[in-house]
């Protein structure tokens, strides 16, 4: 854990006149897996949208790989090395599985062992089996695998997953968690949103909890497990 890869400091983000984030801060170091946690509607997805420039923060600082990205367009932020697995997957329905993957393929940052079609197929064998099927015909779990594979094909420095396992069958969820565990072992930097605290505390290095657009707690998995009341206070319904 060395260099800080992503540094968010005091961002405020609005949709029109409705403010969602109120001075939110977090950081991701190189090789670190960070979990962003909170109840629905607390600002998790807006945080991701702010990072990606989809809903730009109106104030505060967002730095990625040493560059100020708060006012950059989304495509430029992606080119710097941020790969997004969005909520809802958003695969291309009228392209085949293979076409979805190769359309995103790039090694702009010159990774020594880049992700390729063969490596994604080894990670998710089902995508190899479904290579010539149209995206619209895939199950929800297969679409999530494809969305992850597509993001990895950009060879990102930072992989962001918004609701990594939401709505997936139990067996598929386990496959996604195994994938994330493998990526962590390989040193991939990851920022993940999910509701499964049990799995997150097993693989994440640190956690941020947000409440009404503010960072209300941050700490390690060990610290989170040692304070069970935090889950009831900030994650319970």
List the helices and strands and how they pair.
Blueprint: E1 4-15, E2 18-29, E3 33-37, H1 44-52, E4 59-64, E5 67-68, H2 74-81, E6 82-85, H3 97-104, H4 117-123, H5 125-129, H6 140-152, E7 158-161, H7 170-185, E8 189-193, H8 197-203, E9 206-211, E10 214-220, H9 221-226, H10 229-234
Parallel strand pairs: 3-8, 3-9, 6-7, 7-8
Antiparallel strand pairs: 1-2, 1-4, 4-5, 9-10
Helix pairs in contact: 3-6
Structure description:
The chain is α/β, with parallel strands linked by helices. The chain has a single domain (4-234), classed as Rossmann fold (3-Layer(aba) Sandwich). 36% of the residues lie in helices and 27% in strands. The chain contains ten helices and ten strands. The strands form two sheets. Strands 6-7-8-3-9-10 form a six-stranded mixed sheet, with helices on both faces. Strands 2-1-4-5 form a four-stranded antiparallel sheet, covered by helices on one side. Helix 3 packs parallel to helix 6 (140-152). The longest helix has 16 residues, at 170-185.
Give a quick set of tags describing it.
Rossmann fold; alpha/beta; globular; single chain; 237 residues; 10 helices; six-stranded mixed beta sheet
Short description:
With 237 residues, this protein is α/β, with parallel strands linked by helices. The protein has helices spanning 44-52, 74-81, 97-104, 117-123, 125-129, 140-152, 170-185, 197-203, 221-226, 229-234; strands at 4-15, 18-29, 33-37, 59-64, 67-68, 82-85, 158-161, 189-193, 206-211, 214-220.
């Amino acid at each position: 854990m060395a260099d800080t890869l992503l540094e968010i400091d005091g961002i405020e983000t609005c949709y029109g006149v409705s403010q969602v984030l109120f001075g939110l801060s977090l950081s991701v170091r190189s090789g670190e897996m960070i979990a962003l946690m909170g109840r629905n509607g607390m600002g998790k997805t807006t945080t991701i949208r702010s990072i990606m420039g989809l809903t730009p923060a109106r104030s505060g600082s967002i730095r990625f790989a040493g560059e100020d990205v708060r006012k950059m367009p989304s495509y430029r932020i992606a080119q710097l090395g941020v790969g997004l697995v969005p909520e809802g997957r958003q695969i291309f329905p009228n392209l085949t599985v293979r076409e979805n993957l190769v359309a995103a393929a790039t090694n702009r940052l010159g990774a020594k062992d880049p992700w390729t079609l063969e490596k994604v197929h080894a990670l998710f064998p089902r995508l190899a089996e479904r290579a010539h099927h149209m995206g619209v015909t895939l199950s929800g779990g297969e679409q999530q695998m494809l969305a992850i594979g597509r993001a990895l094909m950009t060879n990102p420095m930072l992989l962001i997953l918004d609701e990594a396992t939401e709505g997936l069958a139990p067996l598929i969820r386990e496959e996604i968690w195994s994938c994330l565990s493998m990526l962590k072992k390989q040193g991939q930097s990851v920022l993940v949103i999910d509701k499964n605290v049990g799995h997150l505390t097993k693989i994440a290095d640190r956690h941020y909890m947000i409440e009404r657009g503010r960072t209300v707690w941050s700490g390690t998995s060990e610290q989170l497990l040692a304070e069970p009341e935090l889950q009831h206070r900030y994650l319970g319904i």
